[in-house]
User: Which sequence fits this backbone?
């Protein structure tokens, strides 16, 4: 009997004992479903959380002048204070970095501003921020209605503004504020956009209680002291964040004219610590999920071995006939091994389908996870199925191959 004939014989044997085969395959499928399902769910939830962290700035870093915001080190000792990052330096850094990443430049103008419009006025708790064309995207703020600043408005410093949802509800509750005017800091601004409601309850009210004006407009407004410009750099490739941080640090040192051997005159604040913690946590969860799946598969392999032992006992006379007709011990062993592998693969395919569905289902229940097809875990599941079939079927197959043909023919 060749390999192909052994496979055909395995399917004939499976068909003749269909109920037993189905139950055995189900045991294997449950083990594979547990393994693939848990690991798929972890990967899908990790992907969803990574997207969330990215929207919160986990794939970005900020640059600020060292010591400018906090002049005292630990123990009350006054540290060295470097000059703030100027607009010229920020623009030069942005230009030098080019297309390597997305750079947003912003400046905090006021945090206790009263805004008037349409005969109404807000409480003096509105924050005014000046930003460039990348500010909204890099801060993950979405426009509800209207438009962003045009290149001409950004270049000339036009008096236009994008307001938060809370300001719109307060000043223009029953009509659209677009192309209407609001008054703040002694100037009149035309409203060109309204931000989506974010529901932020943090300090300053988040985007709901904010007025965004062009960066050049903010730079031209009268003030008592120099503006402090914040430079935020973001990337869509989280794996390159460390490399990008090093490259950006070198560019900023050159822009700030930091001498060789001198410490950085600025601080780099990375916000990917939560994402790193997630990677560490997901690694532990995968180990736990693999152990759960392994224990389930161990039970399935024991059940399969028991079924194969019963099958060998029931087919003792058949084995004797095959040997009498010239089948070798190697062919008998191969026949039972292939039968065990076929049962495992059938159960494994079902388990993989159920596991992928279960894993993505759990991810969708927990959060807005994307549907993932874990090709690696699916391939691993099939390899494990074949391994379980070999491990479970080897002893029964060896026992069948070792049977004496004469004693087998006498078996009733």
Assistant:
């Amino acid at each position: 009997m060749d390999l192909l004939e052994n496979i055909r014989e395995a399917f004939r044997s499976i068909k003749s004992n269909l109920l037993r085969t189905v139950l055995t395959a189900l045991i294997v499928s449950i083990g594979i479903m547990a393994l693939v399902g848990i690991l798929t769910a972890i990967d899908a939830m990790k992907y969803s959380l990574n997207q969330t962290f990215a929207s919160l700035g986990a794939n970005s870093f900020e640059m600020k002048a060292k010591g400018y915001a906090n002049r005292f080190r630990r123990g009350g000792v006054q540290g060295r204070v470097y000059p703030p990052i100027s607009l010229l330096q920020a623009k030069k850094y942005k230009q030098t970095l080019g297309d390597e990443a997305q750079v947003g430049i912003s400046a905090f103008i006021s945090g206790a501003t009263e805004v008037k419009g349409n005969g109404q006025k807000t409480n003096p708790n509105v924050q005014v921020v000046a930003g460039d064309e990348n500010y909204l995207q890099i801060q993950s703020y979405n426009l509800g209605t209207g438009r962003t600043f045009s290149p001409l408005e950004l270049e000339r410093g036009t008096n236009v503004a994008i307001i938060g949802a809370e300001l719109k509800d307060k000043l223009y509750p029953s009509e659209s504020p677009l192309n209407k005017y609001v008054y703040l800091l002694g100037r009149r601004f035309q409203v060109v956009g309204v931000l989506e409601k974010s529901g932020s309850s943090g300090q300053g009210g988040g985007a709901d209680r904010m007025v965004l004006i062009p960066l050049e407009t903010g730079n031209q407004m009268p003030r008592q002291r120099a503006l402090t410009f914040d430079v935020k750099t973001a990337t869509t490739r989280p794996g390159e964040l460390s490399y990008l941080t090093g490259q950006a640090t070198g560019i900023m040192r050159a822009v700030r004219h930091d001498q060789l051997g001198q410490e950085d005159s600025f601080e780099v604040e990375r916000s990917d610590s939560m994402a790193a913690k997630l990677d560490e946590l997901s690694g532990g969860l995968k180990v736990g999920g693999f152990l759960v799946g392994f224990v389930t598969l161990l039970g399935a392999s024991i059940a399969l071995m028991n079924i194969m032992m019963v099958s060998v006992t029931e087919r003792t006379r058949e084995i004797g006939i095959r040997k009498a007709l010239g089948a070798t011990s190697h062919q008998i062993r191969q026949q039972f091994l292939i039968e065990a592998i076929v049962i495992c693969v059938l159960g494994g395919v079902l388990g993989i389908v159920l596991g992928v569905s279960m894993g993505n289902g759990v991810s969708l229940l927990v959060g807005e996870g994307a549907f993932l097809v874990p090709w690696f875990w699916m391939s691993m599941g099939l390899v494990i199925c074949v391994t379980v079939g070999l491990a479970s079927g080897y002893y029964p197959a060896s026992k069948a191959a070792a049977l004496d043909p004469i004693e087998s023919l006498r078996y009733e």
Observations:
- The CA atoms of residues 65 and 224 lie 19 Å apart.
- Residues 60-270 form one domain.
- The first helix runs from residue 3 to 16.
- The chain has a mean pLDDT of 78.
